[in-house]
Write a structure and sequence with these properties.
Length: 168
């Protein structure tokens, strides 16, 4: 009897963003950096917003699927508490915090624009510049091209690119 060919084991990655805007931006990055060459299946999900604990809970409840790596993209305007830090350690979650303040503040920074002092103002300023609703990945294509993202020296963008490229 002939042996069945062994299925090549692919790496799996889940990234949970804080909300639908984070998911849209992550989907945009995935469309640029997640290629068949990475030998990795990438899943992007939105959290329920709110606190870092809520996003951590969202990625943990995905435990019924075996992911090689789990990552969360959260804002930095609310600090992680000790319980959150313990869950992160226990479940080996990669944490990327958008700085300054939030995703929109970080994206304004990438565009060499000074982010306002509040998350709400950052959202207002960035969302006015997008080519469509901030909940759609296509809205980020014009401002955040591959060239813009490749030139970025933001630690968070570099880390996201490495994860999507399956580059340890």
């Amino acid at each position: 009897m002939a042996k069945k060919p062994r299925k090549i084991q692919r790496a799996t990655l889940i990234i949970v963003g804080e909300g639908i805007y984070d998911k849209a931006f992550l989907d945009h990055m995935k469309s640029i950096y997640d290629t068949r060459d990475t030998n990795q299946k990438v899943t992007i999900k939105p959290g329920d917003g709110g606190s870092p604990g809520d996003v951590i809970h969202t990625v943990i409840k995905e435990r019924h699927v075996q992911y090689s790596r789990r990552c969360i993209l959260i804002d930095s305007d609310i600090p992680l508490n000790d319980e959150d830090k313990n869950k992160i350690r226990k479940h080996k979650i990669i944490v990327i915090q958008s700085k300054p303040l939030c995703l929109e503040g970080m994206l304004l920074d990438i565009l060499d624009q000074s982010p306002p002092c509040s998350s709400q103002e950052c959202k207002k300023v960035l969302h006015q510049q997008l080519s469509g609703p901030p909940s759609r990945k296509e809205s980020y294509q014009q401002l955040f091209t591959k060239q813009v993202l490749d030139r970025s020296t933001k630690e968070q963008i570099i880390k996201l690119k490495k994860l999507l490229l399956n580059d340890k």
